[in-house]
Amino acid sequence: MHPSSLAKYRPFPPVHLPDRTWPDAVISHTPVWCSVDLRDGNQALPQPMSIEEKLEFFDLLCRVGFKQIEVGFPSAAETEFNFLRRLIDENRIPEDVTVQVLVQTREHLIRRTFEAIDGAKRAIVHIYNSTSPLQRRVTFNNASREQIRDIAIEGAMLVKQLAPTIPHTEVILQYSPESFSDTELDFSLECCNAVIDIWQPTPEKRMIINLPDTVQWSTPNIHADMIEWMCRNLKNRESVLVSLHTHNDRGTGVAATELGLMAGADRVEGTLFGNGERTGNLDIVTVALNLNSHGIATGLDFADLQSIRVIYERVTRLNVPERQPYAGELVFTAFSGSHQDAIKKGLDLRCNELTKNPDVPWGVPYLTIDPQDIGRSYEAIIRINSQSGKGGVAYVLDREHGFELPKTMHPQVGKRIYDFADEMGRELTIDEIREVFFREFVNVASPLDVVDYELIHQVGERGQVKCEASILLHGESQHIEGLGNGPINAFVHSLTSIGLKDFKVTDYRSHAVRGGSDASAAAYVQVQHDDGRLLWGAGVDPSIEMAGLKALVTAWNLLRP
Fold this sequence. Notes:
This protein has 561 residues and is an alpha/beta fold. It has helices at residues 37-43, 51-64, 78-89, 107-117, 133-138, 145-162, 185-199, 220-233, 253-262, 284-292, 305-316, 337-356, 390-401, 410-424, 430-441, 487-496, 544-558; strands spanning 32-35, 68-72, 98-104, 122-129, 170-177, 207-213, 240-246, 267-270, 448-457, 465-473, 476-484, 503-512, 521-529, 534-541. The strands form three sheets. An eight-stranded parallel β-barrel has the order 1-2-3-4-5-6-7-8, surrounded by eight helices. It has a three-stranded antiparallel beta sheet with strand order 9-10-11, with helices on one face. Strands 12-13-14 form a three-stranded antiparallel beta sheet. Helix 8 (220-233) links the parallel strand 6 (207-213) and strand 7 (240-246). The longest helix has 20 residues, at 337-356. It starts with 31 loop residues before the first strand and ends with a helix.
């Protein structure tokens, strides 16, 4: 923004609350959740959901565990009205789920809304009117505070009058001073208390006062001050559920909600993945999983978040961003080498700890929760591009392809693979990583190749074996033999017999390849050249002995200039 533009803006005034208590509060229990996907979320879609899509989404929300679901604005359109009637007439609303409907505080709209909810076991009638000075001046043509307050009073009185006309439906009143976020606190309180006086809630039959952060004007701490101030001053507080409905204009919807809960709120409205007008509503998935990450049960089940996301993307025709908390494709993925190394070590350590204590707390660097708890595998946690490190490459080869590279082999393999990623200018797939590993480090057969071999145990020579092998050296076939205390040692001596003496074996490892075909074995041999260079080679073969010889041959070949 150009400096000349700044003069038109003013800081949002703070709340005078010197004895605020919310900064020391700890969220220890879950709020009441209300999904507004089918109303607030739906109205923000370029192409609103069809009735069939809304029915599918409603069923999804019920499976997730929402007990309060705002299903629409039935007085606004026939589609909205018909959708709610299908829910009621086809008995699609579970016994423990309460539907919520939104309606402006206008008589004909409220009466139409009661036609829509008739027959539901329970329904929250959510009335609202805008209250802020800006709305009073612009939308209501300089209406007075008294005129705005009277709109709320008249709406509440009409709902109370109509409730007995549908005796089979329990009606719960919810009131929102719709632009609470920039309304004077004393006037918000005046409107809310006026509605409370009319409805006369009790601790057994509470009403809902919703305090929407309709447009985010302030920082989350000021929002929390506003919520605490209202919680202190509302009439019959024990008979009222204080509800939050934050938007995300400043990118702080989650923070404002969490601080609002610390400030005393009881209930949260939001949508899956934050869909909503402008920059969106609160993302309930994020807030709920944040609570889960502190060991707090929420009543919402996101154990298969990927499937939820698939349905959401199909019926809304929106995409969940790759970096969306918890749900995005890349949120558990590390490309950075240091991050990859720490994650790999953390996961390996956790595996070891779980064998001793199945209740060991979660603790893996860079992963706030266990991805498996929301249906994600460990497969995509570490991915490789030119910024990746040796540990990340080793992790992928281990987890995805079953190759347990020796620790000191990681730098050699890692450098070559992320150099290749740099050459390609993009992330490598797990198959490409395997292809580069095999091309550069496995069964490399030039200039030296082992074609066949035979091991003969020497009678009377304790632990001695004789290796007879057919090799190709620079394309020429040779038969060699040597004696040693094992296959590798005997083969080294056979190479020495034809003058290949400029190296020595310094390390050897082997294992069965997890998931490998033909019961493959993998072997790794490190050799040191006379000039001091150390290099690893790998061999893969159904025979563990041949895998070891191929690893040695590979390492020898890699030492060549």
